[in-house]
Amino acid sequence: MIVILKENAPKEQVKALLAEFEAQNLTIHYSKGERSTLFGLVGDTAHIDMEKVLANDVVADVRRISEPYKAANRRMHPEDTIVEVCGRKIGAGYFSVIAGPCSVESQSQMEMVAESVKASGAAFLRGGAFKPRTSPYSFQGLEVEGLKLLSAAKKATGLPIVTEIMSENQLDEFEDVDIIQVGARNMQNFRLLKELGHCRKPILLKRGLANTIEELLMSAEYILAGGNSQVIFCERGIRTFETCIRNNLDISAIPVLKRQSHLPVIVDPSHAAGNTWMIQSLSRAAIAAGADGLMIEVHNNPPAALCDGAQSLDMPQFAALMTDLKRRVEFEGLELQG
Ligand code: PEP
Ligand code: MN
Which end of the chain is less crowded, N or C, counting CB atoms within 10 A of the terminal residue's CB? Predict the structure, then answer.
């Protein structure tokens, strides 16, 4: 971190500021030029609040030269992290597809969809039991009953389950869940992230609707800093000025996240597209750009779906998609799990 001092900054105040940094075990490299004076801070600067430093009367500017995330940073962990769940791997050349309905709706729905996506090659079953809906009058999910139906489908098919958590108070209810999803709307629910740092289950962390890649990395840092090293990023599209699609799938996020971090990255083309006809193109693009997996919404009867029917593939459509994607996954030298 570089701190640039104001011209003619009073010596006593500068000294006091330097002492503050020294007390935090940071080494100071002082450099006095003809016009400006600056110093570099060497050591663990992740905990320094830049705004607070900038608020000091003698400081003209502050710049970070290293990233504020450590545990998520590839510099600290050059090898790709592989998240392994029930014998299925995600990351470092292992590619997994998570499929299932937006919401868990009934036992027959879950049985049907789980059997079908398994036969098509999905490695994990998804389904929302607690749904974060924009309107309080929309279907909110079957809640605990939905978790039970997911568990039953897991028992029947052997597919590990992925479902969204809304609050840290629900952790006990998520005992049988294999991957806990943090939805886009909760990406910066820091209390939730902290608690998930203490649990020992993999976390699928979705990017917020209007969050930067660095903010996503910092949210992963919350979980990793708590001691949970199993985080999977999920790019699901961001809001832009574009109105003809639900969200803009940020393909660039895949190479950026993989360059900056060692954690696996999967892509959710369903919530990006908001329709079914774009899922194949977006899935192909994700594979080509280096994704470690996909999460796709599949419903037994999309027109009757209680949530996100317009973007849900029916079961034959998903089967056909998987036939196409398997060839592409193989072409990239990836090993399809499931
Ligand atoms: C979902 O996966 O069903 C979901 C609500 O996604 P997101 O948080 O990305 O909107
Ligand atoms: Mn959905």
Answer: C
Report the percentage of the chain scoring pLDDT > 70.
100
Domain that holds residue 29: 2-63
Residue 219 shares a structural domain with residue 129 = yes
DSSP state of 96: E
Answer yes or no: do 224 and 92 share one domain. Answer: yes
Residues in the 5 Å CB sphere of ion ligand 2: 102, 308
CA-nearest residue, atom 4 of ligand 1: 183
Please state the atom number of ligand 1 nearest to the C-alpha of residue 183: 8
Residue 206 CA: which ligand 1 atom is closest?
9
Tell me which of 32, 63, 94 is where a domain ends.
63
- Provide the Cα torsion 192, 194, 199, 205; round to 10°: 60
Query: Ligand 1, residues 98, 124, 138, 181: which to mutate, most atoms within 8 A of Cβ?
Result: 181
pTM of structure: 0.93
Q: For the domain that residue 59 is a member of, what is the CATH number?
A: 3.30.70.1140
Other Cβ atoms within 10 Å of 133 Cβ, number: 14
Atom 10 of ligand 1: nearest residue by CA position: 184
Per-residue pLDDT of 7-50, as tens digits, reads 989 999 999 999 999 999 999 998 888 888 999 999 888 889 99
Residues framing ligand 1 (Cβ under 6 A): 102, 128, 132, 183-185, 206, 236, 271
